[in-house]
């Protein structure tokens, strides 16, 4: 089939609506009036002999195949014009909010400087975005993977740890086992991907704790700050407390015990035959970033030089 300008405009409109989520947003992205986008979608639906293609599952599959095809054409054009050196186009990324802001946001400008032709958009959110449905090129995920439509690459281990301030432990004592946590104020996370119970292990030992306390939030940073100020014991990924452990604002609790939900840190992308060069460049960059060691390892290692819980508190 020969693709004429009219068909190309219709396909571009469908892709924009699928990516942006509405006619108004698609029109803004394409710098066209929303009525133009509506007419192009309507013409495409009539030509395909269907209605409301943009809202159906078949329409979503059609849009995804279009995106793959246009990505391939775009990349081929880039390589022909610039010898495969200059990358251009939009790169949409999704990072976990707290970890992304703390450890990835400071590093990402290096990637932007390497590829100044890219239009980079980063979504920071604790929820798991729908990469295919929302048009993301890649995302970082913590924990268990369950979407078979995604290709995953493990970047490192993700370990859950417990922490509390020296002041809190002086006032309430240091728990010697997971069972002893029942006597403590456990700060509870209520945001996306939260767990109602803490399953912990040490060798062949297993214990399950139902965290209870007087302080809860859907924001990781807020709970960490509450822990620093002596409100209770908090449990998050080691990345979130590495700096606190290093400087002593938080002390690790029950370091010999591990959470059974410890999993990995994964880079995920949609499963497709063709990976755009811009996505491949980001995969290479972030793989190199983590290959040098987890960004927070230096802080965690520095904490080894701090006094232990027992010696610090004189217990």
UniProtKB/TrEMBL annotation:
Entry-linked Pfam families: HTH_1, LysR_substrate
Matches recorded under SUPFAM superfamilies: Periplasmic binding protein-like II (SSF53850), Winged helix' DNA-binding domain (SSF46785)
Record GO biological process: DNA-templated transcription
Domain HTH lysR-type: 1-56
Keyword terms: DNA-binding, Transcription, Transcription regulation
A molecular function (GO) term: sequence-specific DNA binding
DNA-binding listed as a keyword: yes
UniProt keyword Transcription regulation present: yes
Family: Belongs to the LysR transcriptional regulatory family.
PANTHER family for this protein: HTH-TYPE TRANSCRIPTIONAL ACTIVATOR TTDR-RELATED (PTHR30537:SF5), HTH-TYPE TRANSCRIPTIONAL REGULATOR (PTHR30537)
Protein name: LysR family transcriptional regulator
Species name: Acerihabitans arboris
């Amino acid at each position: 089939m020969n693709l004429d300008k009219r068909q190309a405009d219709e396909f571009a409109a469908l892709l924009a609506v699928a990516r942006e989520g509405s006619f108004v947003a698609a029109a803004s992205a394409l710098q066209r009036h929303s009525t133009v986008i509506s007419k192009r979608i309507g013409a495409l639906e009539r030509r395909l002999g269907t209605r409301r293609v943009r809202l159906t599952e078949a329409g979503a599959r059609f849009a995804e195949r279009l995106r793959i095809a246009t990505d391939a054409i775009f990349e081929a054009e880039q390589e022909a014009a610039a010898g495969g050196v200059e990358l251009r186009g939009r790169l949409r990324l999704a990072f976990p909010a707290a970890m992304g802001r703390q450890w990835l946001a400071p590093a990402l400008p290096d990637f932007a400087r390497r590829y100044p032709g890219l239009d980079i958009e980063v979504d920071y959110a604790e929820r798991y975005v729908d990469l295919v449905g929302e048009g993301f090129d890649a995302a970082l995920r913590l924990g268990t993977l369950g979407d078979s439509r995604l290709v995953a690459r493990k970047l490192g281990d993700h370990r859950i740890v417990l922490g509390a301030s020296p002041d809190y432990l002086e006032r309430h004592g240091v728990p010697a086992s997971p069972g002893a946590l029942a006597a403590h104020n456990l700060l509870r996370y209520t945001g996306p991907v939260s767990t109602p119970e803490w399953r912990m292990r040490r060798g062949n030992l297993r214990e399950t704790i139902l965290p209870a306390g007087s302080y809860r939030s859907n924001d990781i940073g807020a709970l960490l700050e509450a822990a620093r100020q002596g409100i209770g014991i908090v449990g998050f990924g080691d990345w979130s407390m590495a700096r606190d452990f290093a400087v002593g604002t938080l002390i690790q609790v029950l370091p010999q015990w591990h959470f059974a939900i410890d999993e990995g840190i994964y880079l995920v992308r949609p499963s497709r035959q063709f990976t755009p060069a811009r996505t491949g460049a980001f995969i290479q960059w972030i793989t190199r970033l983590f290959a040098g060691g987890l960004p927070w390892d230096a802080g965690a290692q520095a904490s080894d030089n701090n006094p232990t819980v027992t010696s610090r508190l004189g217990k």
